[in-house]
Amino acid sequence: MSFESTAEIVHAWVRGWVASRGAADPVHRPWGFTVDVGQVKHATRHVLTADDEATVRKVAAEVAAPTVWLKAFTDPDSVVEWVGPDWAVDEPGWLMSTELRRKRTVVPDGYTLRTWTRGGVVRALVVGADGSFAARAQIAPTGHTAVVDQVETAPEHRRKGLGRLVMHTLHNAALDHGATVGVLGGTPDGRALYESLGWRVHAPLVSLFHRPA
C-alpha cells in the first residue's frame, strides 16, 4: 500500500492513534481532524491535513485554549511563525511509514518478552532478570494500516537490541491482524532505530501546545 498524499497517511495515523490511546473518534474538519483525548494536560488535539499559512493561522486562533494541542505536517519554522507566540513547540517529530514484513525475534539473554492484546491493541513489554521495566511499545491495527505507539526503552537498557525486538514483535502482530503497512510519529530518540528497520519519513510532525506568554 502506498500513500498518495500526506493527508492520506495523516488520516491513517490519526485512526490508529485514537485506537491505541483510547481517545474519542476523530471528528472530520475541512482542514483535518479534532480528537478529544481527555487528559488533564491534553484535553483535545487538532490535527491539520491543511498546510497553507492562512488555514494554519485561522485554526490556531480559533482553537487557542489551555490544554489544547495542534499537530501540523509542514516546515516547522513556518508553522511556529504562523501560529504566533502563544503556542509552544514540543520536541521535533516525523510522520513515518514502512511496508510490514515478518521478522525473526530474538530475546537477549537476561530478558523476558511478554505480549498481550486488549481492545485490538497489541502491547509488548520487555523486563530484565529482576522483573524491572526494560522496554515497551504497542501497535493498533486498523485495517490495512497499523500505528506503532509509545515506544520506550529504559536508559540503562539501551543499545542491547530491545527496541528492535519490540518493533519486530509488533510488526509480526500487525501482520497477523491483516495489516500490511506501519505508520508512526517518530521522535528524535526513535528515528534512527526506525530508519534502520526500513521506515521512511513522509513529513515533519510539528507538535504545539497552547501556552499564552
From TrEMBL:
Broad class of enzyme this protein falls into: transferase
EC number per UniProt = 2.3.1.-
Q: Where would I find the N-acetyltransferase domain in this sequence? A: 66-213
Q: Name one Pfam family in it.
A: Acetyltransf_1
| Keywords on record | Acyltransferase, Transferase
User: Which organism encodes this protein?
Assistant: Streptomyces xantholiticus
Task: Report the GO molecular function annotations.
Answer: acyltransferase activity
What InterPro entries does the database record attribute to this sequence?
A: Acyl_CoA_acyltransferase, GNAT_dom
Protein name per Swiss-Prot or TrEMBL: GNAT family N-acetyltransferase
Source domain of life is Bacteria
